[in-house]
Give the backbone structure.
Amino acid sequence: MESVPQKLPRLYQQVAEKLVTLIESGEYTIGMRLPAERDLAAMFKVSRPTIREAVIALELESYVEVRMGSGVYVIEHSKGKSRFSDKDVGPFELTEARALFEGEAAALAATMITEAELEELAETLDEMACENNVDTETHEAADKKFHMIIARATNNSAISSVIEELWDERESSELTHRMYEKVRNSGVKPSVEEHREVYEALKARDPQAARELMRAHLMRVIDSILEATEVEAVEAARHQVTKNRERFSKTRTIS
Amino acid sequence: MESVPQKLPRLYQQVAEKLVTLIESGEYTIGMRLPAERDLAAMFKVSRPTIREAVIALELESYVEVRMGSGVYVIEHSKGKSRFSDKDVGPFELTEARALFEGEAAALAATMITEAELEELAETLDEMACENNVDTETHEAADKKFHMIIARATNNSAISSVIEELWDERESSELTHRMYEKVRNSGVKPSVEEHREVYEALKARDPQAARELMRAHLMRVIDSILEATEVEAVEAARHQVTKNRERFSKTRTIS
DNA sequence: GTCTCAAAACTGGACAGGCCAATTATAATA
DNA sequence: TATTATAATTGGCCTGTCCAGTTTTGAGAC
């Protein structure tokens, strides 16, 4: 038989993967207790030591928490790889950082971007404009693609890594994710227009314009978040919003 | 006995920690094979399954690699937490990213820095100037402290996290670390002067000046790295250096 | 009927010993 | 000397067992 996989992973890894799949598919939800090790062993047709090894693997990747004498419980998976996981970076801070960093990245990209990359950007813009009213997921994918093309156009993997990290971060924070969702729903079309302006600046190879437009774009996102916040915020939170307005107006003026 | 620790960690974790200690202490160096699982079990007075669990833990943290039928081998430990670990970010890219991002951070910090933070900066400057000719470790600590005070003065944890990440990254890359070492040895005094200029700009609350001076400081670091590279580079590498010069001259002119 | 608390059932923690398969070292052979 | 077959080593995995916390249960007290 040549269909036999020549190298199969270690057993505990296979089991661990299956367990992760079950957890991420919602079979076992957060807080829920997994079946006993003995039962899991029977389910997967493996021995208990193997189950233990798989559980340890999940534990080290903080998928589960094992409580002596009680069981192993699914916990919130903080992906670990996020540097902000323990810092609770809010949507404002995150977007402000993006405004500064991506602004600089756009300026640098303007001096180095290739024709091929410009072409890619144009295509992505069409995706965004065309699939405007389709599902948000597609739009978001195109959005990320646009920003990442620019980041990579800097030819600096440190820069693109940081920008991708900041982008991904918004997914891992529940609050931030909700905020961005609200912003997306409030008005996407102006966003497409803003992206196009950035594209034009890059095409013209104008660093200053690219920086300013990218920064302006993300600053508008902050504004949108502020508005969304105001809508849903209770009266008690309002003075904080005002403080934020003051605070981010400073960012805007330091250029 | 009341000296009994109320909660001792799981056995495999204790074993894993001991193994990590042994590895980091140089008892087992990179490429070396660890004793057989059976021997380790005897050494630590635990059962073999426990050893296996500990080895799996080390494996998941990429301390070791286990080769079926051969043994478990110590590999280079890439701390995993670095987002760049798999991307091989060179010293030039890293420093360019720092120049852009820390420049912006300095500009933002100039608008928000407190008197207390300025005072801290002044103290750190004294440390750097005073312990100039002492061990490099102290100097480097003061250097990082200086940059991180500014990063934190932005009052934006996303920004300070990114900057700290970039700083730490230079430790994890052997090449980058060597480069920075060379730069440190070549001339520290001008570096102190450059830091002082940044400090003055922050004290004057001048965003533009703070950005320019911080950027200039890090650009000079790139120059130093280039020089260090030239000294040790073989002839074949020289054209790459020239390309780098061209490339980073662009960064300098986009402001 | 309700509450208390101890016993039993359940669950993870750890161990012993064994067999198999892949690898490596060794010795026998061409 | 080079090659190949054999033996020793090593990780992979299993069965079975006992122990120590945790949870549930149920009997007895009120």
